[in-house]
Write a structure and sequence with these properties.
Layout lengths: L1 H12 L26 E2 L5 E2 L47 E3 L1 H4 L10 E4 L9 E5 L20 H9 L3 E4 L8 H4 L9 H11 L15 H12 L16 E6 L1 H12 L4 E5 L22 E6 L5 H11 L5 E3 L12 E4 L29 H9 L2
Parallel strand pairs: 5-6, 5-7, 7-8, 8-9, 9-11, 10-11
Antiparallel strand pairs: 1-2, 3-4, 4-6
Helix pairs in contact: 5-7
Length: 378
């Protein structure tokens, strides 16, 4: 009996305690609005869902050699698929920043920087350039944000799909639809104003954009600064057929106008653009074919009807199709609509703004699958 008691005592010393278990949570720069109280968060802003049996996705130590936790693989060592809804993860991408006049002292001083990211995984050999909406001081109640930092989830998603990514800080304190009011507005007001913002050529009396502050110059100088000259030709101009352009609100209109000026890989318009004269493809041919244009807008947004009128003018393929479930449209339409509530009540930002876009219980954007479709057709 004494020997048995000694054996049981020794055995109990080797058993781990189940009291006070802990979870290690890494520091994250992203916000989580989810219901799960203890998500596992990566250092790059992604959030991992717990497994179906309630355990942490980190799992238990079974004696096997673990893959290094650099955020680029799942627990099994497989690369993360940023379009797989089962992962519920945003691509673990570090966003860099640089102020516009750091790339050229002739550029005016800006309070907000450009953002950029290298591709994660296999590069697509394509560049995504994203244009933010109007500066909040000029947003006329739409609550759009001032710079690329308001769209970091979308930028990370694109980098996770293999794009070189730029969120471009341009002269966005000019409210295009305030300077060009009316329905319809002055015949070519939008056209001249957008072209001056993009090129720096003096075309509109209401603004004065010097060439150094134009979208084209800022983008060219940033590409040189980053060492991404593969997207520039021998003369230092952008190689547009390797570029996808996207933007929110006013920025989406600039993306579409660039698709008119140049043949680009694709155009993505979030909560944009207006149905102005320049959008009439039948009357004013566009260099980028209609089947490379995509739009996404909330039916709850005050500018929704204007957006869809512009899409019709530009002859976007397919009918208006809801993507409220966050996935790609089953019919392959390029005209995507939303009726879900914005996270912050700002329906103008539902489609792509970090603060406004709806989120899952784990804090990741609910529209992630729709974003993948817009960026890849998948």
């Amino acid at each position: 009996m004494r020997s048995l008691s000694l054996f049981l005592a020794l055995l109990s010393l080797g058993c781990p305690s189940n009291d006070d278990p802990t979870e290690e949570i890494a520091e994250s720069g992203s916000q989580s609005t989810g219901a799960d109280p203890d998500p596992v968060v990566s250092t790059s802003g992604s959030t991992a869902a717990p497994s179906s049996d309630g355990d942490s996705t980190t799992g238990e130590d079974d004696g096997s050699t673990a893959e290094p936790d650099d955020g680029s693989t799942t627990g099994t060592g497989e690369p993360l698929d940023p379009c797989d809804p089962a992962t519920d993860l945003i691509s673990p991408v570090d966003l860099g920043s640089v102020f516009p006049n750091e790339t050229d002292p002739a550029i005016r001083d800006e309070p907000l920087p450009h953002l950029y990211a290298e591709p994660l995984g296999t590069p697509r050999e394509q560049l995504l350039v994203f244009f933010p909406g109007t500066d909040p001081g000029y947003a006329q109640g739409m609550q759009t944000d001032g710079g690329p930092e308001a769209y970091t989830d979308f930028l990370r998603q694109a980098a996770g799909l293999g794009y070189h990514v730029i969120g471009l800080m341009y002269v966005n304190d000019i409210p295009v639809n305030v300077i060009c009011p009316g329905n319809p507005p002055a015949v070519d007001c939008h056209e001249r104003l957008r072209e001056e913002i993009i090129t720096g050529v003096d075309l509109h009396d209401a603004v004065s954009i010097p060439p150094a502050d134009s979208i084209l110059h800022r983008l060219e100088r940033l590409l040189v600064h980053l060492g991404w000259e593969q997207y520039l030709d021998a003369e230092g101009s952008v190689v547009w057929d390797a570029v996808a352009v996207a933007g929110h609100s006013q920025g989406g209109g600039h993306a579409a106008f660039l698709g008119r000026m140049f043949e680009v890989d694709r155009v993505i318009m979030a909560a944009s653009t207006e149905g102005a004269r320049w959008t009439r493809r039948a009357q004013f041919p566009m260099r980028t074919p209609a089947d490379r244009f995509y739009g996404i807008s909330s039916e709850l947004d005050a500018v929704f009807n204007g957006n869809t009128f512009g899409w019709a003018n530009m002859e976007l393929p397919g009918p208006l199709t809801s993507v409220d479930d966050g996935t790609a449209p089953p019919n392959g339409s390029h005209q995507l609509t939303l009726t879900i509530d914005a996270a912050d009540g700002n329906h103008h930002g539902t489609a792509v703004n970090d603060v406004s876009t709806p989120r899952t219980d784990y804090g990741t954007p609910r529209l992630r699958g729709a974003w993948c479709y817009l960026l890849t057709n998948e």
